[in-house]
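hey so i finaly got around to running the thing on DUF4175 domain-containing protein from Microbacterium dauci. pasting the sequence first so u can double check i didnt mess up the copy paste, my clipboard has been acting weird all day
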Amino acid sequence: MYAALWRVLPGPWWVRVLILLVLLAGVLYALYFHVFPWVFTFFAPDQESTIGGG
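ok and heres what it spat out for the 3d tokens, dont ask me to read them lol
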């Protein structure tokens, strides 16, 4: 799979590495700011604190 991706990308090796780094940064951004908070709502639906609520 990685070899196929490497062959599809245009340019010399350093351009391919740059493209892959940008793609990796985009995937990490999407995971960190969109996917993980959405998944967290399923595992911790109660965000209310009971400390000092008496």
